[in-house]
Every structure is written in structure tokens, then in C-alpha cells.
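User: Once you have settled down, look closely at the record that follows, taking as long as you need, and be ready to discuss the fold:
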Amino acid sequence: MVIGSTLSMPGLVQSGKIVAGGQVTVCRTGVGIVVPSGTPIPAIGSIADFKRAVLAARVVVYADPVRGGAAGIHVDSVFKKLGIADQRQSQITLAAGGDITEVTLKQGAGALGLTQISEIVGKPGADFVGPLPQELQNETIFVAGTPAGVSPTPAVAAFLAFLKSPVAVTAIQARGMQVD
């Protein structure tokens, strides 16, 4: 079994590495905002609030969109859509992806990071501000797929059933992800 995003699975199906049509949704996560613990929490409940928070930040951290991460690509497009990409260019720090929270924390007071909620929640020294406003949100959906040429086994079926169990759902949700 392979677990990946709905962005990566089509390429694996097309190249014949994953069985077509057999994906099972595991969970999803949206883009959220992180600040270093102990710093002011900006209001982000509306698009106007979000824009003010980004413009007021000393430094804004997100994944380099050139590297292909879903959150970085999305944040870059949101900044362009809101007309603040050029305004913030000198205050933007692009990170590798997957380390946005850590890079944000190293920037100290006045830093604001944007990444997958699952990469924020539960990290020491980080305050999860909240998700992007719904109108700006983008969710990444994670699915399980069966490798081509491999027959599904009882162990895989048991693992997929476990991922839907109350204990697994609780753990998944505790990491900032949603289960349908």
C-alpha cells in the first residue's frame, strides 16, 4: 500500500505503479498559520483580517513553490490573488517545505508561517493561529493506493480498517487533519 496526496497519485497511476480506481481516502488537511509561542496571535477570520496579518508580519515564511509543495504553491497564488505578493517580497522567507514551522520559530517575534495544518499542530514552541479563511483555503487529500502487480492482502485491509477506527481517527485529528 502507498499513501500519498491526490496530487501525486494520478502520476503513479498513469505510470502504472498504482492500480487505477482503487484509492481510498485516508484524511485531509488545509493550510494554516503558525506564529512562535508567546507572540501576539493575529486575527485571520476574514480575508481582510488575513491580509492585514500578512502585511503586518515582520517576516512571512512558506514553502518555496518552485519545489512543488501544495501549500507553498497555494500560498503563493493567494498572495498574488490578494495583490500583496510584490508588497511582501522583501519580507518573504521561502523554506524547503515540511520545515515551515521550524523556520518560522527561528525567525522569532513578528514571524508568520503558512503551511499544512498537520505540520503545525503539536510542535513545541509553535502556536497554531488557525486555518486560512474558507474562501482562501486549499485542502490536500491523502489517499491509500495499491501498487500495481500486488494483490491486496488481509493485512492491508486490516490497516485501512484501523485508519477508520476511533483510536486512529482521534490521533489523525490531533495532528490537525480531518477524516470524512
